[in-house]
Amino acid sequence: MTKPSLNPLAFFLIIIALLVSSPESRRNPFPGKHSRLLKPQNNLLNADNYIYETRYFEQTLDHFSFHDLPKFPQRYLINTNHWVGPSRMGPIFLYCGNEGDIEWFAANTGFVWELAPRFGAMIIFIEHRYYGESMPYGSRNEAYKNVSTLAHLTAEQALADYAVLITDLKRNLSAEASPVILFGGSYGGMLAAWMRLKYPHIAIGALASSAPILQFEDIVPLDTFYNIVSNDFRRESTSCFDTIKKSWDVITYVGRKVNGLDYLAKTFRLCGKLQSSDDLFNWLESAYSYLAMVDYPYPSDFLMPLPAYPIKEVCKQIDNLAEGVNILDRIFKGVSIYYNYTGEADCFELDDDPHGMSGWDWQACTEMVMPMSSNKNSSMFPEWDYNFTSYAEECQNEFGVTPRPTWITTEFGGHCIEDGETGNNVTGAHHMDLRAATADDPDWLVEQRASEVKIIKGWIDDYYTTMKTVVNM
């Protein structure tokens, strides 16, 4: 019997929904320390269509060498309630875990849960190595101890993890003939896209939502991201945009005065002393960028508890204060929508990292080098140019490594992709199409998901047709 020959790109789908990166020079292209990722809500995880079994797979630490290194337990979540089984070649929907706790992604990827019954599919969410509970060397402290222990935190190793785990699982279930569809959003979307390219024999298609696979080297203009974020605020309110734009000079001026940093710390209710104005800049830039990413038309807690259309609410707070209120108080009132919408925070820790997201710092200092800059003429953010020399120096100081800015495009490609888009404002928010359907979904989103379902159905139908032809040969 001859195995079917599949074109590596024939079943490949990339959907880039919005926003390609993040505020700081290298730390937050995706949810990072200022996002304070939430644990999944219990009521969501206990819903009938969100039930899963938690399992652990004994994973190889280094897939690309034959050194006798310790293995580590990789967590994955599995649901077979709707799977029609191996005899009917029931499909497998595999979510490629991002830089965080896998339960959080399971709770925020309702599209996959809603799709599984329709296709009789198994659902699997695999946790990314070095995040959540999937820690090599026994603990996070040991895994993040030094350059040697962090050396295996790479996208290539993560993709190999997913390939090995799903292959082993299919073998144990006698489901070798079951087709695999990959899903992912943001960094997870990048992994889904790259896995489809690197392991075309393992998955027949990939849906990559909000996946910034072109945010490397100079493939897109370096100021694209901050221009997109700025336009989100400008469309909502030009006065809000202008207030934010002016605030950076005010913060710099106040910070240089005697006791100015103390004044800023008090104004923004920081828990500790402010070491520099730059630290406050980063905190504010994070809020504005993440607000643009999660500007959903309904309340959400994807990064933080937020109201519907949070940018609108932020700008209301900035614009609607009484005349005479100073610019810093307006800014604080606005960003409090992001950092303290529930009103539960008494003060704010600028370096708070409760969910162990510092792994992304390592990835950004090694291979995930996503250069960005800000142009004050088109952006509401402070002006700065990307400088690889200072970027590399920072990475050397923190980790003792030098970034490889061209490695991702060498490994996965990215140049000369014939797609007219590089960066654009779209109607949706960060991997909004992967979230659960709601009564508040706009028509365009309903149509978008229907289009995705049609494409996925086409992949599966074509696979079954090919397999039937092969069997009858």
From TrEMBL:
Residues 1-25 form the signal peptide. One of its GO terms (biological process) is proteolysis. Keywords: Glycoprotein, Hydrolase, Protease, Signal. InterPro entries: AB_hydrolase_fold, Peptidase_S28, Ser_carbopepase_S28_SKS. One of its GO terms (cellular component) is vacuole. Gene3D superfamilies: alpha/beta hydrolase, Serine carboxypeptidase S28, SKS domain. One of its GO terms (molecular function) is serine-type exopeptidase activity. Belongs to the peptidase S28 family. This is Serine carboxypeptidase S28 family protein. The lineage of its organism: Eukaryota, Viridiplantae, Streptophyta, Embryophyta, Tracheophyta.
